[in-house]
Amino acid sequence: MASHTGRRRPTLPGFKCQQQLAKTTSGNVGTNGRISDGGAWGKCKLKLALDRNTVNIPEDNNLALTTTKVPYVIVADDAFPLSVNLMKPYPGRGLNDKEMIFNYRLSRARRASENAFGILAARFQIFKQRIPTSPMNATKIVMACCVLHNFLISINPALYIPAFSIDTEVIEKRE
User: Which stretches make up the DDE Tnp4 domain (predicted)?
Assistant: First the structure.
Protein backbone atom coordinates (compact mmCIF):
# COMPACT_ATOMS: atom_id res chain seq x y z
CA MET A 1 0.00 0.00 0.00
CA ALA A 2 1.33 3.39 -0.87
CA SER A 3 0.62 6.51 1.13
CA HIS A 4 1.19 10.20 0.66
CA THR A 5 1.89 13.17 2.88
CA GLY A 6 0.89 16.75 2.93
CA ARG A 7 -0.67 18.38 6.01
CA ARG A 8 1.31 21.09 7.76
CA ARG A 9 1.14 21.64 11.52
CA PRO A 10 2.20 24.77 13.35
CA THR A 11 5.50 24.35 15.19
CA LEU A 12 8.09 26.55 16.83
CA PRO A 13 8.92 29.83 15.06
CA GLY A 14 11.66 29.27 12.48
CA PHE A 15 10.79 25.60 12.01
CA LYS A 16 8.28 23.72 9.93
CA CYS A 17 6.89 20.26 10.35
CA GLN A 18 5.48 17.98 7.66
CA GLN A 19 2.81 15.62 8.95
CA GLN A 20 1.58 12.81 6.80
CA LEU A 21 -2.02 12.25 5.85
CA ALA A 22 -1.38 8.50 5.53
CA LYS A 23 -3.91 7.95 2.76
CA THR A 24 -3.62 4.73 0.83
CA THR A 25 -3.23 5.21 -2.92
CA SER A 26 -2.61 1.64 -4.03
CA GLY A 27 -3.27 -1.75 -2.52
CA ASN A 28 -2.42 -5.36 -3.27
CA VAL A 29 -4.72 -7.56 -1.23
CA GLY A 30 -5.25 -11.28 -1.43
CA THR A 31 -1.76 -12.74 -1.27
CA ASN A 32 -1.27 -15.67 1.09
CA GLY A 33 0.32 -14.50 4.36
CA ARG A 34 3.05 -17.13 4.05
CA ILE A 35 4.49 -15.50 0.92
CA SER A 36 7.37 -13.07 1.45
CA ASP A 37 7.01 -9.36 0.65
CA GLY A 38 9.25 -9.84 -2.38
CA GLY A 39 7.17 -12.82 -3.52
CA ALA A 40 3.95 -10.85 -3.14
CA TRP A 41 5.50 -7.95 -5.09
CA GLY A 42 6.37 -10.34 -7.91
CA LYS A 43 2.66 -11.15 -8.32
CA CYS A 44 1.40 -7.59 -7.78
CA LYS A 45 -0.53 -5.79 -10.54
CA LEU A 46 1.33 -2.56 -9.76
CA LYS A 47 4.69 -4.26 -10.42
CA LEU A 48 3.42 -5.64 -13.71
CA ALA A 49 2.15 -2.18 -14.72
CA LEU A 50 5.49 -0.60 -13.75
CA ASP A 51 7.37 -3.22 -15.77
CA ARG A 52 5.14 -2.52 -18.78
CA ASN A 53 5.40 1.24 -18.26
CA THR A 54 1.60 1.58 -18.11
CA VAL A 55 1.42 3.39 -14.75
CA ASN A 56 0.77 7.11 -14.95
CA ILE A 57 3.89 8.15 -13.02
CA PRO A 58 4.89 11.81 -13.32
CA GLU A 59 7.92 12.68 -15.43
CA ASP A 60 11.29 12.74 -13.69
CA ASN A 61 11.65 15.91 -11.65
CA ASN A 62 14.49 18.02 -10.28
CA LEU A 63 15.58 17.49 -6.70
CA ALA A 64 14.88 20.57 -4.60
CA LEU A 65 17.42 23.35 -5.16
CA THR A 66 19.28 21.33 -7.85
CA THR A 67 19.17 20.58 -11.55
CA THR A 68 19.48 16.84 -10.89
CA LYS A 69 16.50 15.00 -12.40
CA VAL A 70 15.31 11.89 -10.58
CA PRO A 71 12.39 9.48 -11.10
CA TYR A 72 9.46 9.12 -8.73
CA VAL A 73 9.95 5.93 -6.74
CA ILE A 74 8.36 3.46 -4.40
CA VAL A 75 10.38 2.96 -1.22
CA ALA A 76 10.95 -0.64 -0.18
CA ASP A 77 13.02 -2.82 2.10
CA ASP A 78 15.67 -5.47 1.41
CA ALA A 79 13.10 -8.07 0.31
CA PHE A 80 12.34 -6.21 -2.92
CA PRO A 81 14.36 -6.09 -6.14
CA LEU A 82 15.96 -2.78 -7.06
CA SER A 83 14.49 -1.12 -10.17
CA VAL A 84 14.15 2.34 -11.71
CA ASN A 85 10.95 3.04 -9.76
CA LEU A 86 11.67 0.94 -6.67
CA MET A 87 14.35 2.01 -4.19
CA LYS A 88 15.73 -0.27 -1.50
CA PRO A 89 18.52 0.21 1.05
CA TYR A 90 22.14 -0.62 0.41
CA PRO A 91 22.71 -4.14 1.78
CA GLY A 92 25.20 -5.36 4.30
CA ARG A 93 27.62 -3.83 6.75
CA GLY A 94 30.65 -1.68 6.16
CA LEU A 95 28.73 0.95 4.21
CA ASN A 96 30.37 4.27 3.46
CA ASP A 97 28.91 7.54 4.80
CA LYS A 98 26.86 8.31 1.68
CA GLU A 99 25.31 4.82 1.68
CA MET A 100 24.48 5.04 5.41
CA ILE A 101 22.87 8.46 4.92
CA PHE A 102 20.89 7.14 1.95
CA ASN A 103 19.67 4.16 4.02
CA TYR A 104 18.68 6.46 6.89
CA ARG A 105 16.71 8.77 4.60
CA LEU A 106 15.04 5.86 2.82
CA SER A 107 14.04 4.47 6.20
CA ARG A 108 12.48 7.83 7.11
CA ALA A 109 10.49 7.77 3.87
CA ARG A 110 9.23 4.24 4.59
CA ARG A 111 7.76 5.41 7.89
CA ALA A 112 4.88 7.01 5.96
CA SER A 113 3.55 3.67 4.73
CA GLU A 114 4.31 1.96 8.03
CA ASN A 115 2.32 4.66 9.84
CA ALA A 116 -0.60 4.12 7.46
CA PHE A 117 -0.61 0.40 8.34
CA GLY A 118 -0.39 1.25 12.04
CA ILE A 119 -3.32 3.64 11.82
CA LEU A 120 -5.39 1.06 9.91
CA ALA A 121 -4.65 -1.60 12.53
CA ALA A 122 -5.46 0.77 15.39
CA ARG A 123 -8.73 2.02 13.88
CA PHE A 124 -10.02 -1.26 12.47
CA GLN A 125 -9.75 -3.96 15.09
CA ILE A 126 -10.24 -6.71 12.48
CA PHE A 127 -6.52 -6.35 11.71
CA LYS A 128 -5.52 -7.37 15.25
CA GLN A 129 -6.24 -11.02 14.45
CA ARG A 130 -6.44 -13.48 11.60
CA ILE A 131 -9.51 -12.38 9.62
CA PRO A 132 -12.09 -15.15 10.27
CA THR A 133 -13.58 -15.45 6.78
CA SER A 134 -12.83 -16.71 3.29
CA PRO A 135 -9.90 -15.19 1.36
CA MET A 136 -12.34 -13.49 -1.06
CA ASN A 137 -14.28 -11.85 1.78
CA ALA A 138 -11.05 -10.93 3.59
CA THR A 139 -9.89 -9.09 0.45
CA LYS A 140 -13.18 -7.16 0.37
CA ILE A 141 -12.89 -6.31 4.07
CA VAL A 142 -9.33 -5.01 3.69
CA MET A 143 -10.20 -2.90 0.65
CA ALA A 144 -13.31 -1.53 2.40
CA CYS A 145 -11.18 -0.57 5.42
CA CYS A 146 -8.73 1.24 3.10
CA VAL A 147 -11.57 3.20 1.47
CA LEU A 148 -13.10 4.06 4.86
CA HIS A 149 -9.65 5.03 6.15
CA ASN A 150 -9.17 7.51 3.28
CA PHE A 151 -12.73 8.85 3.70
CA LEU A 152 -12.31 9.43 7.43
CA ILE A 153 -9.00 11.21 6.85
CA SER A 154 -10.64 13.50 4.29
CA ILE A 155 -13.50 14.36 6.68
CA ASN A 156 -11.40 15.30 9.72
CA PRO A 157 -7.72 14.30 9.65
CA ALA A 158 -6.95 15.82 13.06
CA LEU A 159 -9.68 13.77 14.73
CA TYR A 160 -9.04 10.53 12.83
CA ILE A 161 -5.24 10.68 13.14
CA PRO A 162 -4.27 12.35 16.44
CA ALA A 163 -0.85 14.02 16.26
CA PHE A 164 0.67 11.61 18.80
CA SER A 165 -0.19 8.55 16.70
CA ILE A 166 2.27 9.14 13.84
CA ASP A 167 5.91 10.04 13.36
CA THR A 168 6.55 13.67 12.54
CA GLU A 169 9.72 15.28 11.29
CA VAL A 170 10.76 18.76 12.34
CA ILE A 171 12.75 20.33 9.55
CA GLU A 172 14.92 23.38 10.07
CA LYS A 173 13.60 26.29 8.05
CA ARG A 174 16.21 27.52 5.55
CA GLU A 175 15.71 31.05 4.28
Answer: 24-150
